[in-house]
Design brief:
heterodimer; A: 265 residues; mainly alpha; Fumarate Reductase Cytochrome B subunit; 13 helices; 0% strand; elongated; B: 468 residues; Fumarate Reductase Iron-sulfur Protein, Chain B, domain 2; Rossmann fold; four-stranded parallel beta sheet; three-stranded parallel beta sheet; 48% helix
């Protein structure tokens, strides 16, 4: 009983809380940090619409990665697409009544989910066999892949072999959403699925998973190449010459006036 | 994605022995930096790092969001050339990231090394000094990064942090100090500048029989030209090209002995010197009461000029629109208006290809005007492989303050992809609009045995212009 309360009630509230506060703080930190200079990269948009298109493109189909590495792009793109489909599919456990479009995406989301471990395995193997990628990999890179593997494999097992009583799952979620938590009996595999999702959420704001959304505040992507417009650095400060410097504005003015005087004589 | 040289296997420490000479006290003092490394360098650097993190969204965000996918790894010419894994953009950023994690993130404070966090110590500083001066701030990695992570921002941050504690390279600091003494990177004194200009005038009169002026400090001229100072001294054919163009177009112009340099080495050091150097351009324009400023054939100059001038040096509305403007804008516009008589056959001995300087192509999106000029003045033009030109261009190997002789190995390694891409075209003239490219690429071509002359775009124009 105590364990159930811990896993199915306290943990979700705690982890979701950390996730939301952590993400909020991180975005606040980024947003409040000024971007002092215009650091656009070619081809840079000139208009706000251009920026929106660029960011939407970056979020949806990763054009830079496509330019860089086709195979990695394919794996990364399919993984993210599948992940989104699965996430949307999961909305049926949270929404009452279930909207029609969530109903319609169920089958697609289901199949997408079966493929995710394949993409993750590919990314893991790539990380291990490409010497240069292995060199830059740190524990955090494996932790993220491992957590996602645990989540997706346990999810697939719950769907295929250890069918969970989804009515109870939904009842739990609805009860949590309405802050009137109730206890139900679940298979241990469901507990594993839920716990690993919660760990991932907790880990999210402190890790490279921040790339989701961080992109929107990346100056090289969102800035405009409107060079004729003045771009102001909020923390700009005046600079001055020191006595060691020989070429100063004052001396140049003297030189020029000296020359003009000489010309007149 | 085609790479002109095969992607090497990693060779740990392959270029670790190549580092620039440390700065000299006399230069550091002139550019408002500590004369030598401070006693409490570590505290100063950490304090500066906190400041940089609070001042640059780019740095903070890029350190946070990198997923280490490795898409950038084989895009850097210094990794391709050396195989040293610390020359992969992501690994270069990791040098800063590990210290950031240790002192500025919860995970790093709690779990230390298991979370890739590391104390700032002597070894780390040595690594920074080596590898942040093996990056040419060319930003090629940034256009392949799915999040646009720009390693030049990281390199600039690290150099700024080091500089605050009195750690910098001789080459970069020397150049900045020269600007504040002589007005340009090469340290050409005003008298010498005027002498060189007079010499070019006489030379042209003798060889071509035309009276073409190279005006200096002419108050009230219409145009102030900000060339790289090398054009007055080494790449004189480029200077002659400008002068002939202005002469043929009937535009009054001048250079300034206060600011006869566009190349901004403050960009490779810290914000204060970036601003101070850039301010000189608008100051010279005000004092000379010109109507327009044109930047000459210089890569870093045009990045600072186009993208940063209004931020660093204030509004340019005392000038005529359009601003900021590049000399190639003017020349290609005049050509398209039919302002010149051109004999293309003057360049028939050349099969010309064009090397996009990184800062011009990637920071400014400036790829067409130089090509338009070349196509208008040459009969034979060929492009290098499309993965090595325009915004995907490779660095010459010596940008970003790396044009120092003590790191010649790095310069030659970094220039290799460009050399191979050039070799594949069979071109015998590599045109470019950057003084650093013009200084390093001839060496690179010689080193990699590519028979190709390197020169400016206005050099070609100068040859083809009919003045009488």
């Amino acid at each position: 009983m105590m364990i159930s309360i811990l896993i199915f009630i306290l943990l979700p509230y705690l982890c979701l809380g950390i996730f939301l506060v952590g993400m909020g703080l991180r975005f606040w930190l980024w947003a409040r940090t000024p971007a002092p200079l215009r650091i656009v990269t070619t081809p840079a948009p000139k208009t706000r619409y251009g920026v929106i298109w660029r960011l939407v493109g970056d979020l949806l189909w990763f054009p830079n990665l496509f330019k860089a590495d086709k195979l990695l792009w394919a794996a990364g793109f399919l993984f993210h697409l599948s992940l989104w489909l699965v996430l949307v599919r999961h909305l049926r456990y949270f929404l009452l009544p279930v909207p029609g479009w969530v109903e319609e995406i169920q089958t697609l989301g289901l199949y997408a989910g079966y493929f995710i471990p394949l993409f993750l395995t590919f990314l893991l193997i790539r990380r291990l066999i490409l010497d240069r990628v292995l060199y830059i990999s740190i524990l955090g890179d494996y932790v993220a892949l491992f957590l996602l593997l645990v989540i997706t494999v346990s999810g697939i097992l719950l769907q295929v072999f250890f069918r969970t009583y989804v009515i109870d799952v939904k009842a739990l979620m609805i009860s949590l959403i309405h802050f009137q938590p109730k206890i139900y009996n679940f298979h241990w595999l469901f507990a594993l699925h839920l716990i690993s999702v919660m760990i991932l959420l907790t880990y999210f704001p402190f890790s490279k998973l921040l790339h989701a959304g961080g992109l929107l505040l990346s100056p090289t992507r969102y800035q405009r190449a409107k060079f004729e417009e003045r771009f102001v650095n909020p923390w700009d400060y005046p600079v001055a010459y020191n006595p060691e410097n020989l070429s100063t504005p004052e001396k140049y003015a003297q030189t020029l006036s000296g020359m003009a005087g000489g010309g007149e004589r | 994605m085609r790479t002109p040289v095969p992607v090497p296997e990693i060779r740990i420490g392959a270029s670790g022995h190549q580092h620039c000479h440390p700065a000299k006290a006399k230069d550091m003092v002139k550019i408002d930096l500590p004369a030598e490394r401070l006693e409490n360098w570590k505290d100063v650097m950490l304090k500066k790092m906190a400041e940089v993190l609070d001042n640059y969204r780019s740095v903070r965000l890029f350190l946070d969001i990198c997923v280490k996918c490795g898409a950038c790894a084989d895009k850097c010419q210094f990794f391709l050339g050396t195989g040293d894994p610390k020359n992969m953009p992501v690994a270069r950023a990791d040098l800063l990231r590990k210290v950031y994690k240790r002192y500025f993130t919860l995970g790093g404070k709690l779990w230390g090394r298991t979370n890739e966090a590391e104390e700032l110590n002597e070894a780390v500083l040595q690594e920074w000094f080596t590898y942040f001066y093996q990056c040419s701030e060319c930003r090629r990695c940034s256009i392949f990064c799915p999040y646009g992570i720009d390693t030049a921002e990281i390199t600039m941050a690290a150099r700024e942090i080091m500089a605050a504690a009195g750690v910098a390279t001789k080459y970069v600091t020397e150049v900045v100090a020269k600007v504040y003494d002589a007005g340009n990177n090469l340290g050409i004194w005003p008298a010498a500048w005027k002498y060189n200009c007079a010499f070019l005038e006489e030379d042209l009169k003798e060889t071509e029989g035309v009276d073409i002026k190279f005006p200096v400090d002419e108050v009230g001229a219409e145009v102030l030209l900000i060339p790289p100072s090398a054009d007055n001294f080494v790449n004189t054919d480029t200077m002659i090209g400008y002068a002939k163009m202005f002469h043929a177009a009937g535009i009054s112009w001048t250079t300034s002995t206060y600011c006869n340099e566009g190349g901004n080495f403050g960009l490779f050091l810290n914000y204060t010197n970036l601003k101070k150097t850039n301010n000189r351009i608008l100051e010279a324009a005000r004092q000379l009461r010109v109507k327009k400023i044109y930047w000459g054939e210089c890569g870093h100059a045009w990045r600072a000029g186009l993208a940063f001038t209004t931020t660093l040096s204030g509004a340019m509305d005392f000038l005529e629109i359009p601003y900021p403007a590049h000399i190639c804008d003017l020349t290609s516009e005049l050509i398209s208006k039919g302002a010149f008589k051109i004999d293309r056959s003057a360049n028939d001995e050349f099969l010309v290809t064009y090397h996009d300087p990184c800062n011009v192509a990637r920071a400014a999106g400036y790829v067409e005007p130089p090509r338009n000029i070349i196509k208008a003045v040459c009969n034979h033009f060929v492009e290098m492989h499309r993965d090595t030109i325009r915004e995907k261009t490779f660095c010459c190997g010596a940008g970003g303050g790396l044009l120092a002789d003590e790191i010649m190995e790095i310069r030659m390694a970094g220039g290799q992809p460009r050399a191979e891409a050039c070799r594949a075209t069979g071109a015998n003239y590599l045109a470019t609009i950057c003084a650093i490219c013009k200084a390093n690429l001839p060496e690179v071509m010689k080193h990699h045995r590519v028979t190709c002359e390197v020169g400016g775009v206005h050099d070609l124009l100068g040859r083809a212009l009919i003045l009488r």
